[in-house]
Amino acid sequence: MTGISSATGVRTGRRPGATEETRAAGASLVVEDLVVDFTTSRGIARAVNDVSFRVEPGERVAIVGESGCGKSTTALALLGLLPTPPAVVRSGSARLDDVDLLGVGNAERRRLLGREVGMVFQDALSSFSPVMTIGRQVTDGVRAHEGISRRQAKLLAAELLAQVGIPDPARRAEQYPHELSGGMRQRAMIAMALAGKPRLLIADEPTTALDVTVQAQVLDLVKGLEGLSILWITHDLGVVASLADRVVVMYAGTVVEQGPVRTIFRQPAHPYTRGLLRSVPNLADDRHAPLASMPGLPPDLADLPAGCPFVDRCPEAVSLCSTVRPRLTDIGPEQAAACHVTAGRAS
């Protein structure tokens, strides 16, 4: 997979960010103080709580955390895809270059989605319509934005499917989602996300339902894309290590740590991050030893503690952790953590 596809305009075969020329193709995303609430029968659940992070042009940023920590909600809120009600974006901003994603109207948002931002959803089978061919769904966005003919769309669908490594792409484009394997469907969804030549790709756990072999193929495909800014949402730290430049760690709807992948993996500052890393199986460990895990459960988002949301599970908690919520604080070059204990050591 090298060269430039005439269909997508996305360079492949070299790592994003390798040169200033390739970096210029990607978009900048800056999210500041994002707050998202859900109305429930038990009251307001704060699913995203003052989340801030950025994706530089051509950079790959991963958001990690346990299920329910707010990763997917954050991404869907940025694109205006949350159901309203019960979801409400209370405050915050999300700027894609000079455009406020949270402030644009529906018409402008439709123009941006597919052209400036591509989205790869978690479950390709449920995300595709079962009554439309793969080829039609892959190119529907391009037809809407650029008004190409059906014949052009048919040729484009085959070209896009070929670029993501699907064999016999012309025939596959005429098939329905249930006729493709899980790996092919995921590749087709990536092709659909890339069809409009976006500068930012958001991928929401796209390899979760795949076996390890197909997962590796999909990751290799994404690694080969050049010129894109990528926001990758996952709970798999192995994927983060092989794909991302920087990582944002979320817990209970808030960012507890962020920084370069190498720094976070070698010197994690937050107890939650250390717990996640300890939970990753290591082939060098005693195979008869029990797997490490974090005791307890995440807090109820409708009844968050006054202090640190991780306080009830934290082995290092002090009295201040129960009463004062820690703020994300710089603790080293490009690394920040929301932890009273860590901040005290850094000072």
How far apart are the first and last residues' alpha carbons, in Å? 48 Å
Query: So, CATH architecture of the largest domain?
Result: 3-Layer(aba) Sandwich
Could you say which overall geometry the principal axes of the C-alpha atoms support?
globular
Low-confidence stretches: 1-24
- Looking at the structure, the CATH topology of the largest domain is Rossmann fold
What series of H and E elements makes up the topology?
EEHEEEHEEHEHHHHHEHEEHEEHHEEH
Main sheet summary: 8 strands, mixed
CATH class of the largest domain: Alpha Beta
Helix content: 25-40%
Organism: Nocardioides zeae
Protein name: Oligopeptide transport system ATP-binding protein
Keywords: ATP-binding, Nucleotide-binding
Can you describe this structure?
This protein is of the alpha/beta class and 347 residues long. It is built from 13 helices and 15 strands. It has helices spanning 20-23, 71-78, 106-112, 124-127, 134-146, 150-163, 169-173, 182-194, 212-223, 237-243, 261-266, 271-278, 340-346, and strands at residues 3-4, 11-12, 29-40, 43-55, 60-64, 87-96, 99-100, 117-120, 200-204, 225-226, 229-233, 246-251, 254-260, 329-332, 335-337. It has an 8-stranded mixed beta sheet, with helices on both faces. The protein starts with a strand and ends with a helix. Residues 1-24 have low confidence and may be disordered.
